[in-house]
UniProtKB/TrEMBL annotation, chain A:
GO CC, alphabetical: acetolactate synthase complex
Signal peptide: none
GO BP: isoleucine biosynthetic process; L-valine biosynthetic process
Keyword flag Magnesium: yes
Cofactor(s) annotated in UniProt: thiamine diphosphate; Mg(2+)
Name under which the protein is recorded: Acetolactate synthase
Domain Thiamine pyrophosphate enzyme TPP-binding: 402-549
UniProt keywords, alphabetically: Amino-acid biosynthesis, Branched-chain amino acid biosynthesis, Magnesium, Metal-binding, Thiamine pyrophosphate, Transferase
Pathway: Amino-acid biosynthesis; L-valine biosynthesis; L-valine from pyruvate: step 1/4; Amino-acid biosynthesis; L-isoleucine biosynthesis; L-isoleucine from 2-oxobutanoate: step 1/4
GO MF: acetolactate synthase activity; flavin adenine dinucleotide binding; magnesium ion binding; thiamine pyrophosphate binding
From TrEMBL, chain B:
Entries under SUPFAM superfamilies matching the protein: ACT-like
The keyword Nucleotide-binding is annotated on this UniProt entry: no
Source organism of this protein record: Patiriisocius marinus
Domain of life, per lineage: Bacteria
Keywords: Amino-acid biosynthesis, Branched-chain amino acid biosynthesis, Transferase
Protein name (record): Acetolactate synthase small subunit
Gene: ilvH
Function description: Catalyzes the conversion of 2 pyruvate molecules into acetolactate in the first common step of the biosynthetic pathway of the branched-amino acids such as leucine, isoleucine, and valine.
Organism lineage string: Bacteria, Pseudomonadati, Bacteroidota, Flavobacteriia, Flavobacteriales
Any one biological process term the GO annotation gives: isoleucine biosynthetic process
Pathway noted in the entry: Amino-acid biosynthesis; L-isoleucine biosynthesis; L-isoleucine from 2-oxobutanoate: step 1/4; Amino-acid biosynthesis; L-valine biosynthesis; L-valine from pyruvate: step 1/4
Pfam families listed in its UniProt record: ACT_AHAS_ss, ALS_ss_C
Similarity remark: Belongs to the acetolactate synthase small subunit family.
């Protein structure tokens, strides 16, 4: 890394704070950032103007779009997403994306401009206490008031954002610090005594875990994003194959294993698959890897896996015993932990136990999946659209979903053959996430087919990012599953609020006209016989493409675990 | 699980905003902070916060886990009252006449081993260190004579276990080097 500074030939060079910002980014290997200019960040934009050959700045249409795009970029590539915004409203508009990144452990570095330091606390124009506001939703944040602090603050920001359990970091830089000069000397940050990113693996704990796994008759693995973040896909696969462990992914763990792998028993959670939810309460050893027992995964904690011994393989010590009491906690990075475990587990198949999953899978297929994928109703189902994408693509797409019914359907039915190919807002459930996140993912992985699956509600929350697609000719595919309802809320109103559909009907504009105005190829279908051709056309189209599919208005997502119910009370209808 | 009184000691780097980062962990869980005291510790640039809350042990464990997770928190620990030696300081402002009148007030001050910190023509300041119950008792006994002002500090506490902060810091610093 030090060589980078030498390579850019700017070591110890006198420059302004704003130039130091961009040269720090270059030293960190950043070549793509998302943002929106404004008064307090203008010096940095001016410095960016000189390095356009090294850093591409994507002008989103709203700062929220910049954070979600940076998230999409980070999730698709594994690199740190960077965004830039001005003070005041620019900074506050970042908050939703930062909160989303915090709960979904996405590495982001957000740089905000701030009013000149002597104006701090005076209610100056576009002044807001973004350090205070962002504190609960950042892994770390820091306000820079002197130019000489910039290289160190940014080096530390990148280190913290990407190390250990990743997360968002915000650096707020006053305008005077951007104008001031300094002798630029960039040194990568090497760590600090108050921050232990990755706990040292305790081999005794690994042995204890292996003993439990080896003695188990009905072992069951739950895996989350930790496998992807640690780039432990290979080790994970080897581990479960050797020990013969049926494995279910959380929504954040999607794509860490091939969808069709014989040990992949589907998705956990409220709208997950039948077998993994039901059998959580039958397994004898529960092995949780890089997941945090979210309430949408566990349902009623008092009736969650009480019969099982619990092994928790986790990088963040604060997650141990947070929701589910652990018998053996293996603290550390998932890759290291799994590597150590592989050698200690005995080769097994657990055929009879796996057969239990197959039986319940069949039940779910007959009751739910068959009907969702081959519906008899006149209007199309969301599931059949996703299924056609599976059928006519090589399944190596990145699927970006928004939040709601279509998200659950996309996560349930899309096939994943490539790691890091599902991008969705899991923890925060941020409507409006998909469109900008898909843009960021496509920019990070330009050679991969990126398909955004979006509902008519979420689409209109960040619809302005169509402008970003237009300006940067981003070849994303957008599938709008339009049911003219806020479908998930409507489903709850139907089931739990006596069908009182308060404010869930959407009277929508003509999306075709709007999207067409942004120079994007559009198509709308409402008949099943046009679906195959439309999907094929979308997939083979070179540029950006918007496919609007009118789907059943009052379809429900099943299976479902009602709030307060136990995972084993999952309903098929 | 029953709620008990716990004393949390948080050791942090000396940086702006860390008090806020520490306090929002309590706010977010709607935990009332009964007392808080902060000062530099025996190690330069490491600050020590002593925070008293009444909670279940389970919840305290989680809170301490979240505190220690903060990037600039070096270490966080929690103890019950029996595992610490703790003290508070209280100041009482009363009319000097009350003390000088030869009445009971002077006896009360003496019997509590409190000391007179300052005597002015109009008022005197009494200082008492002790547990909250003790400073409160002196307050209750002086109240009939009229207390013009009263202030009590947050609890400060020294833990009984012998593991020192310096050894923990040394260990952490080794970790960074390797």
């Amino acid at each position: 890394m030090e060589n980078l500074a030498i390579k850019t030939n700017i070591r110890k060079q006198l420059m302004t704070g704003s130039q130091a910002v961009v040269h720090s980014l270059i030293a960190e290997g950043v070549d793509l950032i998302f943002g929106y200019p404004g008064g307090a960040i203008m010096p940095v934009y001016d410095a960016l103007y000189d390095v356009e050959d090294k850093i591409t700045h994507i002008l989103t249409r709203h700062e929220q779009g910049a954070t979600h795009a940076a998230q999409g970029f980070a999730r698709a590539t594994g690199k740190v997403g960077v965004c830039l915004a001005t003070s005041g409203p620019g900074a506050t508009n970042l908050i939703t994306g930062i909160a989303d990144a915090q709960i979904d452990s996405t590495p982001l570095v957000c740089i905000t401009g701030q009013v000149t330091s002597h104006l701090l606390g005076t209610d100056a124009f576009q002044e807001t206490d973004i350090i205070g506001i962002s504190m609960p939703v950042t892994k770390w944040n820091f306000q820079v008031t002197r130019a000489e602090e910039i290289p160190f603050a940014l080096a530390k920001a990148f280190f913290i954002a990407k190390s250990g359990r990743p997360g968002p970091v915000l650096i707020d830089i006053t305008k005077d610090a951007q104008f001031e000069t300094l002798h630029f000397d960039y040194k990568p940050f090497k760590g600090m005594r108050s921050y232990v990113p990755t706990p040292k693996l305790n081999l005794d704990k690994v042995k204890e875990a292996a003993t439990l796994i080896n003695s188990a008759k009905k072992p069951f693995v739950l895996f989350g994003q930790g496998v992807l973040l640690a780039r432990a896909e290979k080790e994970f696969k080897e581990f479960i194959e050797k020990a013969g462990l049926p494995s279910a992914w959380t929504i954040m763990g999607l794509s860490a294993l091939d969808s069709d792998h014989y040990l992949n028993v589907g998705m956990l959670g409220m709208h997950g698959n039948y077998a993994p939810n039901k059998l959580t309460n039958e397994c004898d050893v529960l092995i949780a890897i890089g997941m945090r027992f979210d309430d949408r995964v566990t349902g009623d904690l008092n009736r969650y896996a009480k019969q099982a011994k619990v092994i928790h393989i986790e990088i963040d010590p604060a997650e141990i015993d947070k929701n589910v009491k652990t018998d053996v906690a293996v603290l550390g990075n998932a890759k290291e932990s799994l590597k150590a475990l592989i050698d200690l587990v005995i080769k097994k198949e657990h055929k009879d136990w796996l057969e239990n999953f197959r039986k319940l899978e069949k039940e779910e297929y007959n009751e739910v999946i068959k009907k969702e994928l081959n519906p008899k109703a006149k209007l199309m189902s969301m599931g059949e659209v996703i299924n056609k994408i599976n059928l006519y693509s090589n399944q190596k797409n990145i699927i970006v979903s928004d939040v709601g019914q279509h998200q659950m359907i996309a996560c349930r039915y899309a096939k994943f053959k490539q790691t890091r190919s599902s991008i969705t807002s899991g923890g925060l459930g941020t409507m409006g996430f998909c469109l900008p996140a898909a843009i960021g993912a496509k920019m990070g992985m330009p050679d991969t087919q990126v398909i955004g699956i979006i509902g008519d509600g979420g689409f209109q929350m960040t619809i302005q990012e169509l402008g970003t697609i237009f300006q940067f000719k981003t070849a994303v595919k957008i599938v709008l599953l339009n049911n003219e309802f806020l479908g998930m809320v409507r489903q709850w109103q139907e089931l739990f609020f006596d069908k009182r559909y308060a404010s869930t009907t959407m009277v929508n504009p003509d999306f075709q006209t709007i999207v067409k105005g942004y120079g994007i190829k559009v198509k709308k279908i409402n008949k099943r016989e046009h679906l195959e051709e439309a999907i094929k056309e979308m997939l083979s189209y070179e540029g950006s493409y918007f496919l609007e599919v009118m789907v059943g208005k009052e379809n429900n997502v099943f299976p479902m675990i009602a709030t307060g119910a136990s995972v084993s009370e999952i309903r098929l209808k | 699980m029953d709620k008990k009184r716990f004393t949390i000691s948080v050791f942090t780097e000396d940086v702006v905003g860390i008090l806020n980062r520490v306090s929002i962990i309590f706010t977010r869980r709607k935990i009332n902070v009964e007392s808080i005291a902060a000062s530099e510790s025996e190690i330069k640039n490491i600050y020590r916060y002593t925070i008293v809350i009444t909670e279940t042990e389970n919840q305290v464990k989680k809170v301490v886990g979240q505190l220690e997770k903060q990037v600039e928190v070096v270490k966080a620990v929690f103890h019950t009252d029996s595992e610490i030696v703790h003290q508070e300081i209280a100041l009482y402002k009363i009319k000097t006449g009350v003390l000088a009148s030869g009445g009971n007030a002077e006896k009360i001050v003496r019997s509590h081993n409190a000391r007179v910190l300052s005597v002015e023509t109009e008022f005197s300041v009494i200082e008492k260190t002790g547990h909250k119950e003790e400073t409160q008792q002196l307050f209750d006994e002086l109240q009939p004579f009229g207390i013009l002002e009263f202030v009590r500090s947050g609890r400060v506490a020294i833990t009984k276990p012998m593991k020192t902060l310096s050894s923990i810091v040394l260990q952490l610093e080794e970790l960074v080097k390797n």
